[in-house]
Amino acid sequence: MIPILVAFLAGITAFAVVAFWSQITEWLTTFIPQVKKKIRESLAKAQAVFARVVSGAFRIIHKFLYKDDRGWVERTTERELEDENEVPEDIRAAYNSKKKANGEANVTSAMEKELDMTI
């Protein structure tokens, strides 16, 4: 019984596709360009967001932890740098050499010396 029902539904589907073929192709010719246009618009917006995120890549972040009457407090400040030349040359050199050596860079000790504090 089920194979007969499946065959019957396949026949109706085939008949519907043949009967409405011109309308189906007309719909596809208008639908596909609209999808391409939406994808291009979305990619342009994604590129703009990516460019905005990358432009803010250079930052100096300070994290202060201290205890007062209310309990422990964490205070974070940051400043975006307009130019990488604002970072001291020795810190940039240390960062670049460590980055090339093993793919990771930690310049905490150099920053401690520069800021005369413990991070």
Word description of this protein:
The protein has 119 residues and is α+β, with helices and mostly antiparallel strands. 63% of the residues lie in helices and 17% in strands. The chain contains four helices and two strands. Strands 1-2 form a two-stranded antiparallel ribbon. β1 and β2 form a beta hairpin. The mean pLDDT is 77.
Key features of this structure:
two-stranded antiparallel sheet, 2 strands, 119 residues, elongated, alpha+beta, 4 helices
Q: State the helix count.
A: 4
Mean pLDDT: 77
Give the N-terminus to C-terminus distance in angstroms.
Answer: 77 Å
As an assembly, this protein is: single chain
How many beta-strand segments?
A: 2
Radius of gyration: 31 Å
The secondary structure category is alpha+beta
Q: The biggest beta sheet, please?
A: 2 strands, antiparallel
Adjacency order of strands in the biggest sheet = 1-2
Q: What percent of residues adopt helix (DSSP H or I)? A: 55-70%
Element-level helix/strand string: HHEEHH
Shape estimate: elongated
Low-confidence stretches: none
Beta content: 15-25%
